[in-house]
Specification:
The chain has 585 residues and is of the alpha+beta class. The protein is built from 19 helices and 16 strands. An eight-stranded mixed beta sheet has the order 5-4-3-6-2-1-7-8. Strands 9, 10, 11, 12, 13 and 14 form a six-stranded mixed beta sheet that branches. The protein has a two-stranded antiparallel sheet with strand order 15-16. The longest helix is centred in the C-terminal third of the chain and has 40 residues.
């Protein structure tokens, strides 16, 4: 299971200059500091300059993964556009590893090389220090060696120095890691920020523990779908095909594409033949114009079966629920998740997973908070233009699901997995609402979650209402039982009242008049009434009946006095005594 640690250390300007070889270690100050005048103004101008001064950080990222092969490290880390993605499957992230992007940023801001330590399982430890020759797009190796791996460690550690501003953007790093913990709860994350000497920035130590031991299965590599390829991809597939002279276009289609059998291949070639193509032509004789005919035939045929979803690896409902619980610290009962079936957009399969939560700790604000993921990577920017935001805020009637989206703390979590995420713009931070199949699937998934939450909210509201009613009823038990006991007891003790009352021959009056230990007392009336309230159905609360009236009616209609006797006193008999039992006491 993955363990990832990130360490950010703020380094002083002296340390940075020393690593560049331009400092003056003997004096303990840099050349600029030594020549700085003692009477330098320290007003607003001085403060402004201090704020704009460059700050440098040493960033170390370490994992316990499979490591990198020693021979591939230079191209993997020191050469741009060196991808080896020739198959079709879900690829994690949006740009690849992102290490080369970090290396280029380090080169632009500090001109220092990147240091790499990596080892594969039971293999030697590779230690590499390299830079990128941007003009030639080639790695510049400063150190490239292998040593013994005594501790049998496996994984990768990358260390580089960059210019940055932790005080302004450190919160984004923390947010990103928290989001990663939501979508990958089977991983353990640790972040350490160590401020430099004399820095006013506080240190940070964030530990996000693993919540799940269940990792999603890795995605499988499948063949291309004919609806998803363009002219260049068709040409590349033909060039990589062995025995080009003995492979006809029909055989090529069956061999290299999914959802194409011999009958379908013949139908596609027939469309091409209608425009002058000769069936049975070997692929090495196919011209550029004939490639265009093939691409057009794919679009014209349009009856291909949907691509396989086995090339996708979504997080899964179980992991998503655990991640949400870790993020917002809410009741697990108020979380609903849903995973839609694989669907297709422009020939690429995609899966939408959604989660909706109600409540959370003090860090969660009232209203709708949206968390978006693409291929299990958080998207933090341009949320307002994203399909998830538009659907959640404009196309779902939350009130119909008993959710007060303006008052409740509503968390929306949507993860989209696909072999090709249809991002808008070069930033790859949002998916447009014009991707209709994805928008429809997101809406369907959120409505499923909201429907599940609605039943939970209704049950929770009913339980709360029952609890409130019980509390209201219990509050009046003592007063009502005392009042009724006093009224009935006065009838029992006064022969004249008993003679006028319709209760004169009842068992209750006889017990009240007796001195036996088991006689009716105020305490017994109150105790029996408490027990009866615990079991009573609160639907008995009739229209326009106050809780005090209900207590009286329940007590007078049916009251268990002893283990063997049940005394039923019609309500009208008490009213016939002209005594207002509702207000007595």
């Amino acid at each position: 299971l993955p363990d990832i640690s990130v360490t950010v250390e703020e380094i002083s300007k002296q340390q940075f200059n020393t690593s560049l070889g331009i400092g003056s270690p003997g004096s303990g100050k840099t050349k600029d500091e030594e020549e700085e005048p003692a009477d330098k103004p320290k007003g607003k101008e001085g403060k402004g300059k201090a704020r704009t001064e460059a700050v440098y950080y040493q960033v170390t990222v370490k994992d316990n993964g499979s490591g990198m092969p020693h021979k591939d490290i230079p191209n993997m880390m020191g050469k741009v556009l060196s991808s080896t993605k020739y198959g079709v499957r879900q690829a994690r992230g949006r740009f690849g590893l992102g290490a080369k992007m970090a290396l280029i940023w380090s080169k632009m801001t500090t001109a220092l090389p990147v240091s790499i330590r990596t080892a594969r399982d039971k293999g030697q430890l590779s230690i590499v220090s390299l830079d990128i020759d941007i003009q030639r797009n080639e790695p510049n190796l400063l150190r490239y060696e292998q040593i013994g791996n005594d501790k049998s460690w496996h994984g990768t550690e990358i260390k580089l120095t960059i210019e940055g501003d932790w005080r302004s953007y450190g919160s984004r790093v923390i947010k990103y890691l928290r989001q990663m913990a939501v979508i990958t709860p089977y991983a353990e994350f640790e972040l350490k920020f160590c401020p430099g000497h004399g820095s006013k920035t506080k240190p940070v130590h964030l530990h996000l523990a693993r919540r799940s031991n269940k990792m999603p299965p890795p995605p499988r590599t499948v063949k291309h779908h004919p609806s998803s390829v363009n002219l260049v991809e068709i040409k590349n597939l033909m060039d990589r095909c062995p025995n080009q002279e003995g492979t006809s276009v029909e055989k090529f289609l069956v061999k290299e594409f999914q959802s194409i059998d011999k009958m379908t291949a013949d139908a596609v070639v027939a469309i091409m033949a209608a425009k002058g193509f000769k069936p049975g032509t070997a692929i090495h004789r196919v011209t550029t114009n004939e490639l265009r005919l093939l691409e057009q035939a794919f679009r014209q045929y349009g009856k291909f079966a949907d691509p396989s979803g086995s090339c996708l690896s979504p997080a899964g409902e179980y992991n998503l629920r655990l991640g949400i619980m870790q993020q917002i610290q809410t009741d697990a009962n108020m979380i609903a998740t849903f995973e839609a079936k694989p669907r297709v957009y422009e020939g690429h399969p995609f899966v939408v997973e959604a989660g909706v939560s109600i409540g959370g700790d003090e860090s969660v604000l009232p209203g709708i908070t949206i968390h978006r993921f693409a291929n299990r990577i958080p998207m933090l920017f341009e949320a307002g233009s994203d399909v998830v935001t538009r659907v959640a805020k404009n196309h779902i009637n939350w009130a119909a699901y008993k959710i007060r989206h303006n008052l409740d703390k509503v968390g929306i979590f949507v993860s989209i997995s696909s072999t090709k995420i249809p991002f808008k713009g070069t930033s790859k931070e949002y998916i447009g609402e014009d991707c209709v199949p994805i928008a429809d699937c997101v809406k369907h998934a959120l409505m499923k979650c909201a429907g599940e939450l609605k039943s939970k909210i209704v049950k929770a509201n009913a339980a709360k209402e029952k609890k409130d009613r019980k509390r209201n009823l219990t509050k009046y038990v003592e007063d009502v039982s005392r009042s009724i006991f006093n009224v009935v007891n006065s009838i029992a003790q006064d022969p004249a009242k008993r003679q006028r009352s319709s209760l004169k021959e009842t068992e209750m009056l006889k017990q009240l008049a007796s001195q036996e230990p088991g006689r009716v007392t105020q305490g017994r009336l109150a105790g029996e009434l408490h027990r009866y309230i615990d079991t009573v159905s609160y639907t008995h609360l009739r229209a326009h009946e106050t809780p005090e009236h209900l207590v009286c009616r329940l007590l007078l209609e049916k009251k268990k006095i002893s283990n063997t006797k049940i005394i039923t006193i019609p309500f009208c008999q008490i009213l016939s005594t002209n005594i207002n039992v509702y207000t007595t006491g």
